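Lecture 7, part 2: worked example. A protein chain together with zinc ion.
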Amino acid sequence: MSDPNPGRRRSGPTQLDPCPICKKASEPAYVPFCSARCADIDLGRWLTDRYAIPTAEDEDADGVEPRPDQTA
Ligand SMILES: [Zn+2]
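Predicted complex, written out as structure tokens:
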């Protein structure tokens, strides 16, 4: 079996999704973003989110549950 279209992905029209950061039309060079700046912003958000999750969980587990042991 040989690929009829080795370099081709599934039919991709020039219509790209808008930049998820600023909603402008995305550039093929930076897809799905419109620019390197927006790609950077998204990466920053992603990393921030990633680091924020364990921190938030830690805070939550520490302060949300009051210990009933002391009342007894
Ligand atoms: Zn953008």
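The pocket of zinc ion is lined by residues 19, 21-22, 24, 33-35, 38 (CB under 6 Å). Residues 12 and 28 are 12 Å apart (CA to CA). Keep this in mind for problem set question 3.
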